[in-house]
């Protein structure tokens, strides 16, 4: 199901990413700069760019490596960070966000990227692209810096919905496995279910139920289930995929981000304390930059919406050109691998009775 | 209700802390070293120490400043980290943990400290000390390093229970306010309710209800309600007290701890990369130590159980002597301030109809 050789012809086909130029904190110039960064590195990429044509045409014209590779689609309205998802679902038509998703819906683009309002983007994505057959609750998955050999874990859901029942958590596990396999080249990802302790009797009822469901599924699908994991394992090395509901996941990643930023500012303060510490800081600059690169959120910018008919990548609202380019790269890579189709196949196969998938000769007891 | 002048006589009265010598990862020698540290700094402190008399007598005898200040109570059984709370509730009698709480129950000690199993300690505390009148769900509160002037926020619940309804969250807010006032000398603490966004329409139903309840209470009690806060605000400066359920709170603090430890190890790696970076590290040592001290979890070691008839401080299982001493200091300070009585008064006053508490001349509308 996974790991089929991709023919060289398929690899050579240009891939088109539909990009929302509006709605980010830094404005369309930064988005266009991100496009230019990606275009420079990747000859195989094309763009459909959505927003005010008047604004975008001169921005694109200035970038030589975007010539003949960007189609601009005029969209006059913008979804702001303050707009409620329910409002956007009623009045979203005509916004750059809608137009961005529409190009994926119509098969004109292979994936979408937006820096806009997460709630609105999820609501419009569900409306326009619809949920994948067999998926009850889509999820947002992110990469999180970790002690794993690959340097990152996949975590989901980090905020598509505030709740998830046991069945949803099983689907998150399956989607997370597929995402980890396709984005990080892991043949046998390890899945952990987030809880307040690792003992099986701990936590909420739906978690105990999900423990059973995921454990059973691991026997027939190609992943390892490491059982319950704790918050400290999110940046740890016991699992590659961390499964949780969108409320807990959202609080966890924001706590992690807040903690990292507290340490960053304390580190800065510590180095500005005295003349000697300033000298040390200059000497330590390379080391600090190395650290900074390792935990730079821009390098892993992009939450992926899983469980929809099409790939949507949510870039951080405050992303700079490097961040936008990283989100585009992620959308490109997933499109190149036919990730959306692979994911649909995996979700569908889990719905079939296990005996249809594989007839196991050995006992399944215990 | 708060801030009454404490008479000098009351201040001079020796305060006795009941300490569980067993159950920590590092064993009783470290606990006794923690006692010695506290005794050295604080002439007003006395101890009742619980555990194997055979083990403890020589450990205490070696410390000169513990002479005549420690009463050892022989308790042969130990609650281990693996014991389930339900088992401990049935068979806990005779353990050092039980004996530690018993001294508080009987009024022989002014507060209890244990490095043992959190779930078991909470279960035994509820059994022995009972819930405070008017409290439905006790909570565990901790200090969390933050950008606030006082350097820390209070966060609760971080794991007493996996759930909390709107009424529980209101009680957590009141208990957190009282704790922040007594432990950090804040006259008017700012309370934030943890959610996935700051807009009032966001989040789970019980959070919206709690928002209304806490908001109303803030009008008559001496605290500010800043509304919903996000994970990034836990180490931030918008609130002094972060209120959440025990599941979310537990995941959040462990994620924060994990992130800090990932950065610590990456920082170490970055500085060991080359000869130059090693030289820089030597020069930067003072700055790094300053940072390390600022975010040192040992300095704020101690989760406090709120909502029980008596003060119980849970020290980190892996605490060293400095950590144990910090937990003892916290228990001492709370006892000295009569915190448990103040907290009971606050919870009780919130139960009364507001007009009994204060007749407000101005309109309460909006």
From TrEMBL, chains A, B:
Compositional bias ranges of the Polar residues kind: 356-366
One of the protein's GO biological processes: phospholipid biosynthetic process
Record GO cellular component, one term: cytoplasm
Catalyzed chemical reaction(s): a fatty acyl-[ACP] + phosphate = an acyl phosphate + holo-[ACP]
Superkingdom in the source lineage: Bacteria
Main location, first listed in the record: cytoplasm
NCBIfam families: plsX
Subunit details: Homodimer. Probably interacts with PlsY.
Identification of the protein by name: Phosphate acyltransferase
Gene: plsX
């Amino acid at each position: 199901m996974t790991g089929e050789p991709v023919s060289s012809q398929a690899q050579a086909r240009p891939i088109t990413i539909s990009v929302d130029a509006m709605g980010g904190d830094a404005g369309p110039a930064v988005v266009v700069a991100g496009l230019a960064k990606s275009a420079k590195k990747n000859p195989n990429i094309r763009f459909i760019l959505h927003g005010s044509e008047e604004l975008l045409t001169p921005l694109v014209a200035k970038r030589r490596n975007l010539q003949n590779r960007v189609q601009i689609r005029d969209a006059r309205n913008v979804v702001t960070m303050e707009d409620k998802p329910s409002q956007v679902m009623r009045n979203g038509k005509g916004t750059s966000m809608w137009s961005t998703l529409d190009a994926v819906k119509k098969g004109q683009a292979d994936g979408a990227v937006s820096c806009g309002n997460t709630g609105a983007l999820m609501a419009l994505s569900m409306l326009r692209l619809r949920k994948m057959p067999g998926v009850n609750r889509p999820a947002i998955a992110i990469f999180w810096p970790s002690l794993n050999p690959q340097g990152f874990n996949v975590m989901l859901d980090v905020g598509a919905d505030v709740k998830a029942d046991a069945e949803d958590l099983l689907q998150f596990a399956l989607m997370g496995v597929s995402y980890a396999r396709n984005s990080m080249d892991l043949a046998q990802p390890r899945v952990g279910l987030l809880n307040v302790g690792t003992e099986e009797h701990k936590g909420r009822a739906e978690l105990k139920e999900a423990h059973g469901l995921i454990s059973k599924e691991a026997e027939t699908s190609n992943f390892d289930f490491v059982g319950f994991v704790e918050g400290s394992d999110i940046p740890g090395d016991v699992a590659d995929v961390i499964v949780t509901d969108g409320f807990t996941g959202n609080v966890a990643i924001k706590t992690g981000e807040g903690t990292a930023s507290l340490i960053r500012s304390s580190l800065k303060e510590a180095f500005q304390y005295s003349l000697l510490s300033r000298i040390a800081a200059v000497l330590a600059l390379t080391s600090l930059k190395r650290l900074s690169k390792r935990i730079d959120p821009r390098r892993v910018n992009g939450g992926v919406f899983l469980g929809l008919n099409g790939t949507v990548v949510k870039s951080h609202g405050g992303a700079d050109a490097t961040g936008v380019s990283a989100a585009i790269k992620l959308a490109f890579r997933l499109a190149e691998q036919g990730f959306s189709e692979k994911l649909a196949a995996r979700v569908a196969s889990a719905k079939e009775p296990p005996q249809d998938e594989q007839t196991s000769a050995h006992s399944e007891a215990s």
